[in-house]
Each structure stands twice: as structure tokens, then as C-alpha cells.
Amino acid sequence: AQTVTQSQPEMSVQEAETVTLSCTYDTSESDYYLFWYKQPPSRQMILVIRQEAYKQQNATENRFSVNFQKAAKSFSLKISDSQLGDAAMYFCAHVSNFGNEKLTFGTGTRLTIIP
Amino acid sequence: GAVVSQHPSWVICKSGTSVKIECRSLDFQATTMFWYRQFPKQSLMLMATSNEGSKATYEQGVEKDKFLINHASLTLSTLTVTSAHPEDSSFYICSAPRTSGTEQYFGPGTRLTVT
């Protein structure tokens, strides 16, 4: 079974600064997808970024980028130039590329942006 | 992007009654949908996988007779909480993948309060 671990329950960052959220996972599969989802106070889950395990290149989406270390089973999220709208819960998630497409979520990291 | 809706967004019901929550994929067909439960300040807990044309698959510990799932069409899944009790009060979220192996699209969630 897959597990996803987020060891930082809370993080804070000064506006315009950079912050990195940590995520590790455990899986016996070689082909899978990893995601970072954001859940703002509205509680709507929003996809931030996606990484395919077979791609060595780290995914980037504007101010968001990941550091994907497959051998270490690590998948951290870096947010550059933090903005007030980035304040939210961030969940790391894993899904197998085979079978039933069930997402496995980490416990989440609450990110606070300090003006 | 793909849109998933949920109805109602908030429902209050009396203990012992049943309540139905709808999840619709608005611009794509979903043979599979997922139902999650989220307690305050916690992660999403997968309850069951809704399969169009067949029975739902429940996660361990989830009472299938209490949480009835029906995937009536390729765009609609319903979750019925039967004989609701205050401990069933929670935030329920559905999701659906538009294509296999990609990110899932989440509904906005339904807040259930049982009095």
C-alpha cells in the first residue's frame, strides 16, 4: 500500500519570500503520479502541480516548482514570491498508474503568509 | 478545465433521517467517481469508489449500508447517508478523473450537520 507523509503540519513565510513544503512517499511501483493540491478556506481542492514518475525533469507551474527525487521518494513543493492568496492547506498526493486511480493523501501542511 | 459540482453545498438534518448528496461531472463523463470525508483540519479520507454500472467499492471500516452510493449515469453519483447521527456530521467531497492516470477534479464539497 502507498503512504504519503507530510512532516510539517504548519509553515509560515513572509510575503514575496520563498517557502518549501516537504513530502515523502512510499510505493513499490515504478510508474505513478504525484500531485500537490491546495485547499483554501473555501475548501475547494485545487490542483497546484503534477509530476509523472517516469519524467526526470521537475515540473514547474509559474511560481510553483517541485523537487522530485525518485530514489529518495521525496516530492517537495517550492513556492516562490509568496502571495497572500497562497495561504491554504497543501496536500501531497500519490496515485498509481495502474488499477483503480485512488489518490493517497498526506496529512497536509497549513501555509500562512505573513504580510 | 473540467468541472465537478456537488449539491447541496450545506445541509442540516435531524438525527435518524437520511440525506442524499449529488456529485455531477459537468463537462465530461466519469465512469469512476470517488467520495471522501474530511474532518476539520484533517486530510481527506477516501470512503468509497463509485463505479458506473456496478456496485461501489468501499474502503475498510466504511459501513456500506450506512453510506449508500449509486452511480446512476456517466455524469452522476449520489451518496446517501442513511439514519444519520451527529457523528456523521462532516464535510463530504467527491472527485472524478477525466481521463485515466491524470489529476482528479474535485467538487466543492458538502457540509453535513446532523442535529
Could you characterize what this model shows?
- The complex is a heterodimer of chains A (115) and B (115).
- With 115 residues, chain A is mainly beta.
- Chain A contains no helices and 12 strands.
- Chain A has strands at 3-5, 10-14, 19-21, 24-26, 32-39, 46-52, 60-61, 64-69, 74-79, 88-96, 104-105, 109-114.
- In chain A, strands 2, 5, 6, 10, 11 and 12 form a 6-stranded mixed beta sheet that branches.
- Chain A is globular, with a radius of gyration of 14 Å.
- Chain A starts with a strand and ends with a strand.
- In chain A, 33% of the residues are buried.
- The mean pLDDT of chain A is 94.
- Chain B has 115 residues and is mainly beta.
- Helix content of chain B is 0%, strand content 53%.
- In chain B, strands 2, 4, 5, 6, 9, 10 and 11 form a 7-stranded mixed beta sheet that branches. A 4-stranded antiparallel beta sheet of chain B has the order 1-3-8-7, with no helix packed on it.
- The radius of gyration of chain B is 13 Å and the shape is globular.
- The mean pLDDT of chain B is 93.
- Classes of the chains: A mainly beta (115), B mainly beta (115).
- Chains A and B meet through strand 5 and strand 6 of A and strand 4, strand 5 and strand 9 of B.
Short description:
The complex is a heterodimer of chains A (115) and B (115). Chain A has 115 residues and is mostly beta strands.
Tell me the layout of helices and strands:
The complex is a heterodimer of chains A (115) and B (115).
Chain A (H helix, E strand, L loop, with lengths): L2 E3 L4 E5 L4 E3 L2 E3 L5 E8 L6 E7 L7 E2 L2 E6 L4 E6 L8 E9 L7 E2 L3 E6 L1
Parallel strand pairs in A: 2-12
Antiparallel strand pairs in A: 1-4, 3-9, 5-6, 5-10, 7-8, 8-9, 10-11, 10-12
Chain B lengths: L3 E4 L2 E4 L5 E7 L6 E7 L5 E8 L5 E2 L8 E7 L2 E6 L8 E8 L6 E3 L3 E5 L1
Parallel strand pairs in B: 2-11
Antiparallel strand pairs in B: 1-3, 3-8, 4-5, 4-9, 5-6, 7-8, 9-10, 9-11
